[in-house]
Amino acid sequence: MDIDAFVENVASEPERRLRHTVWCTPPDELAKAARPGGLRLTDLLAAPGRHAEEREVTYRHILGSPANVRVIDAWEQRYPSHVLPTDLRQLLMRMNGIHLWANAESGRAYAGIAPIEEWDLARTVMYGAEADPGLVADRFVAISYHRDGASFVVLDVESGRYFLMDTAGPDTSTPVATSGAALLDWVWRNRIAPIG
């Protein structure tokens, strides 16, 4: 789908407000847990003053502000052998980040397309800067985020194709799209609606 159709789809779904039970732990107990050695999980869960609260959470689609050409150029200068497809550059200049059914407070969804400032080699995003270069070739760039860090949409800068790579077995067995328009279609079809 083209960018305008994607924006229309986003506008067609109103925000949702859901009630969730949230466990609240007193700040002093969280501070104890954060110290070296921390707390045993059983002690943290049994902390005095820990209680459940009902909270209303608002979810909505959030599209990032357009990326400045200088930001895109700076990313390409950081990775001089990684030329972004023209349609992906056009998408970034309309929306730098796609967060469908995002928590309105955090601005993030369970999974989404990250702003270009967060894009990095897929290997680095998935396994850290010291990861073995043989795990994932440098031509793959992670362009998405995932709350659990389990899988990422990656761009193969050599072919211009997009894949979903799982950290348990990174490979190209799950193609996502061959163009920016097809990527938007895939993102829309795979949005994860909040549940109450």
Number of DSSP-assigned strands: 10
How big is the Rg?
A: 20 Å
Distance between the termini: 30 Å
In CATH, the architecture is 3-Layer(aba) Sandwich
Helix/sheet category? alpha+beta
- How many strands, what sense, and barrel or not for the largest sheet? 5 strands, antiparallel
Helix share, percent: 25-40%
Give me the side-by-side strand order of the main sheet: 5-6-8-9-10
The sequence of SSEs as H and E is: HEHHEHHEEEHEEEEEH
CATH homologous superfamily descriptor: SMI1/KNR4-like
General form: globular
Oligomeric form: single chain
The low-confidence parts are none
Q: Provide mean pLDDT, rounded.
A: 95
The name of the CATH topology is SMI1/KNR4-like
Per CATH, the class reads: Alpha Beta
Strand content: 25-35%
Count structural domains: 1
Protein name: Knr4/Smi1-like domain-containing protein
Question: How would the blueprint of this fold be written?
Answer:
Blueprint: H1 3-12, E1 16-24, H2 27-34, H3 41-45, E2 51-63, H4 69-78, H5 86-92, E3 98-103, E4 111-113, E5 120-121, H6 122-127, E6 140-142, E7 144-146, E8 151-156, E9 161-166, E10 175-177, H7 180-189
Antiparallel strand pairs: 1-2, 2-3, 4-7, 5-6, 6-8, 8-9, 9-10
